[in-house]
């Protein structure tokens, strides 16, 4: 067949050439061979395409040339023939076609690509990208359109990683065309979200890290929202559960229900809150997790109303029962000393989220803490006690205000440069009722109350977990197993003064030497207070409330008792000496 085609093609006389092809056709029909018939059709099509290309190339007027090529392209698209499409691409990218014409034709081809069958789209799309690669700088706009169309096709087929790989080939740092930061951010976030659909945290993190440099200046709320969700999921997949919990919790507290074109329903926010609870339970047991647990279990936000009071005024100007009737020297000293301590520590503190503050009038300030999980996370242990409800009194609140002062620098002047004090006028604790409606609320309650969890409870919780949250670790424990063992060990430290390795192993359901190893790691990492006597094979637990804290609590209790006495005297009409 090939030799017959070659001899027919070599004939210069048109009539003789047609007669020769008719002879070849009669031979093909007589043979009844389908493969030979297909070869004959392909050869004739190629002759037709070549003659069409030759006639288009011969046109000197550029506008007419482009129109002629577009007619050929429409024929190729209508035929849905991959081989003809490839021949068209090869010709357009050859030296016979000027670059200006090639760009316009490829632009049109890229826009019309969606008219082909899905499999043809993918094959031709990949073929174009491969053929363009040596000259990709000259066809960046066309490459962008083709990659987006093929990626959309992969996404519709739920081939998430292939869609992400297709989009990742877009040059977002090109110097040949102007690309704004919003476009870069949208592509980075889109690629990251596609990788996350396949639980590929490594590749997703690479693109979300690129997005992190752009999101701070972004005014697109929808993109910023998607970025936050992706970042939380990446932390979750990488088993940075405590950080993921903080991100999920922040997402669950969003007040808007319409972000761009996306409607945020209550179900999505509840899923974020549930994810925050799950990640907190799976996080390493210790003080940091306890603070986040307290936030999820107990408090949504705290609102304080404060008023600037001039201490130089006579004390009898204030009504009985006010905050200022507590020992002034103690309160003022507590605030000033704590502000100095926190100011000195500010250079070594981790990154924090400042408390938002607004001025209601010249004399009244209203700070609002929308998320204690963020602002209170790096505060002193006293704040943790406040959240968990252990040391809840006016003096404790006064010292808590000192924590706020160190993060709102404009207030420092009120404390140090004038004899002013902040009088507590109103405070409110608002609980997040959504947590109590979650399916995993019972285990959250037990974890928060530091109760030992039994196997049926753990098994019920495991049914709500994702695959990566039950993955097997190098020590042959799953992620869930390790979290539950550490939690039960920390709970046991609240119940026992000391315990033997054997008894601890029985309590935790693991071998004694493994229980010792886990306990030693928790003590070393300051997640549990205690010491290990390896000679006696006993673990001694220590109370995490230090003597100084106990002393402070006794002082707070004394001040509260004194305040109660003064209130009682005022109600009975007794005079209060100043």
TrEMBL record:
SUPFAM superfamilies cross-referenced by the UniProt entry: Winged helix' DNA-binding domain
Superkingdom as given in the UniProt entry: Eukaryota
Compartment(s): Cytoplasm; Nucleus
Alphabetical keyword list: Cytoplasm, Nucleus, Signalosome
Chief localisation class: cytoplasm
PROSITE patterns referenced in this protein's UniProt entry, alphabetically: PCI
Similarity comment: Belongs to the CSN4 family.
Protein name (Swiss-Prot/TrEMBL): COP9 signalosome complex subunit 4
